[in-house]
């Protein structure tokens, strides 16, 4: 699998169930959410702006996409959360299974970020992102085209201690009904 195949397989609406252990707070959290992943054109203004902010040639872009989410947590049952981010894969010229991933909003910190990705022989997408105060490691793999699993760890900026660990199972919504 290369980045183009991974993005194509990821497109659509996903129902996500996430369990997170916030080790710093000694807290366990259950999160349910809907995740929408839609393709963007290489010449989309947001894609070009993100590339230019990192001094990257927009012509090197491969399959940019937008990910939006809305969900609820049992940590604060009265408040729902939602967000959106632009993601732009920049594959290495000599290897379509490795590269950088630009985000206009990071996972561990809500700032623009650049992570390094690689795709393993078994098709697992691995993303490592260094932030100012933390390091994030995410792994996503497909059990079948409509079921994927994701694990994430937020580590201290030195990468020596785990602050948060989570596991998500995500099922593609096959209905055209937007309420699913």
UniProtKB/TrEMBL annotation:
The EC number(s) this enzyme carries: 4.-.-.-
Function according to Swiss-Prot or TrEMBL: Covalently attaches a chromophore to Cys residue(s) of phycobiliproteins.
Protein name: Chromophore lyase CpcS/CpeS
Gene3D superfamilies assigned to the protein according to its UniProt record, in alphabetical order: 2.40.128.20
Database matches in InterPro entries: Calycin, CpcS/CpeS
Keywords in alphabetical order: Lyase
UniProt entry tagged with the keyword Cytoplasm: no
Top-level lineage group: Bacteria
Keyword field contains Lyase: yes
UniProt-recorded Gene Ontology molecular function terms: lyase activity
Family the UniProt entry places it in: Belongs to the CpcS/CpeS biliprotein lyase family.
Pfam families for the chain: CpeS
GO BP: any one term: protein-tetrapyrrole linkage
């Amino acid at each position: 699998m290369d980045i183009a195949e991974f993005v194509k397989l990821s497109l659509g609406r996903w129902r996500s169930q996430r369990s997170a252990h916030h080790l710093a707070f000694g807290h366990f959290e259950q999160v349910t959410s809907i995740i929408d992943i839609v393709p963007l054109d290489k010449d989309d203004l947001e894609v070009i702006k993100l590339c230019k902010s990192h001094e990257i040639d927009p012509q090197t872009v491969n399959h940019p996409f937008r990910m939006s989410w809305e969900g609820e947590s049992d940590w604060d049952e009265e408040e729902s959360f939602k967000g959106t981010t632009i993601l732009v894969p920049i594959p290495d010229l000599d290897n379509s299974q490795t590269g950088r991933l630009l985000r206009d909003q990071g996972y561990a910190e809500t700032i623009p970020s650049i992570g390094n990705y690689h795709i393993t022989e078994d098709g697992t997408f691995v993303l490592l992102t260094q932030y100012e105060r933390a390091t994030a490691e995410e792994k996503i793999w497909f059990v079948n085209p409509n079921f994927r699993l994701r694990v994430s760890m937020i580590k201290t900026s030195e990468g020596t201690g785990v602050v948060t660990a989570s596991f998500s199972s995500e099922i593609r919504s096959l209905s055209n009904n937007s309420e699913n």
